[in-house]
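User: Hello! My lab partner asked me to get a predicted holo structure for this protein. The small molecule is NAP, SMILES included with the sequence. Please write out the structure tokens.
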Amino acid sequence: MNRPSRVEHPYDIVLFGATGFVGTLTAEYLAAHAPDGLRWAVAGRSRDRLERLRERLVGAGRAAEVGVLEADVSDPVSLRALAGHARVLATTVGPYLTYGEELVAACADAGTDYLDLSGEPEFVDLMYVRHDTRARETGARLVHACGFDSIPHDLGAYFTVAQLPEGVPLTVDGFVRAEGMFSGGTFASALNQFSRGPRMLAAARDRRRHEPRLLGRRATAPAGAPRYAGEVGAWALPLPTIDPQVVVRSARALERYGPDFRYRHYAAVRRLPFAVGGVAAAGAVFAAAQLPPARRWLSGRLQPGDGPSAERRAKSWFSVRFVGEGGGQRVFTEVAGGDPGYDETAKMFAESALSLAFDDLPATAGQVTTAVAMGDALIERLRKAGITFRVAAGR
Ligand SMILES: NC(=O)c1ccc[n+]([C@@H]2O[C@H](COP(=O)([O-])OP(=O)(O)OC[C@H]3O[C@@H](n4cnc5c(N)ncnc54)[C@H](OP(=O)(O)O)[C@@H]3O)[C@@H](O)[C@H]2O)c1
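Assistant: Hello! Below are the structure tokens for the protein in complex with NAP.
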């Protein structure tokens, strides 16, 4: 393993896609919270837009110095150069299935730590099959889903497990409540993934063939069934996002999750009509995504770069309640914060990049989850940044 040193690389962190919606919020967060001496750069395909962003950050006195690097996903040489400039490369350039692979490959080859905001299961599975081995050889940590997908759920399950006895079978249920709006980039990524059901399943099967078997332990994420969950006072609807997959990967990697770990992931809805309406709306978007004309019409509703206003984001929030059980104990925990998709995602993304760059972390390499790569150090950072992780009272 040959981790890049500060001497060999001009930048600690390079933020690619810095001129997009979440990219700009992440750049603003880094500028406002960068530790002294952070060497970082914004990267993207338009030098003009990057220079304007830099002027705004530096001009507002929010950053002493920020580099500017030009790169385009259609130019693999520019991506290789980008990977060679950074110890940690954080990219918001999505949909990742469309734009992401070359940069993962470049980072795996260069031994550069890579993080993204992908909530696209097919992309994450393909990257495991194609680039995990190379990243392990070079020491690169490839950490996907470093935003609302999947940090509150991955670190929330990790935090819940830490409250339960060791060495016994454990079950954790996560109940997500949130209010917020989509950006154009998120909507495009979701539509793209919805339209690729069979390819997503094929990538998951291929991954299972490549993953080493878990010997003597079990970690599963059954879908669960819709039910009234008295323990959180809400209707619970199974939520088939990437989050339960990420939680199970953490459980597979970390002995602390015990010999037999089960995680179920739900949307929690207080009133039954909202639960029925939510399922119908999700089903309608999923069905429309299967038909190219309907998909084109839907994707035209929100353009890349569009996203909720600061006022709208200020009213948005999320709360994930966890109920953990094992060894005769039951524990209730919560992870909560503000606008999930953008303000808090930018915070989680930037803090993950800083954690990979500067924290004293366990030795890991290859495709790793946020809990495995950063665990307690990232929880500590997010708490300081205003995201709640707490043991809650039961109902
Ligand atoms: N994990 C989560 O919870 C979470 C939350 C929010 C968003 N996301 C994901 O994050 C991603 C970005 O979302 P967003 O709303 O910020 O999208 P966006 O505003 O459309 O930004 C996309 C970025 O990609 C850049 N880009 C596009 N084509 C490129 C190319 N050929 N070469 C280089 N850069 C290129 C764009 O550059 P220009 O600025 O030059 O156009 C822009 O910076 C999406 O995949 C979304 O699903 C995830």
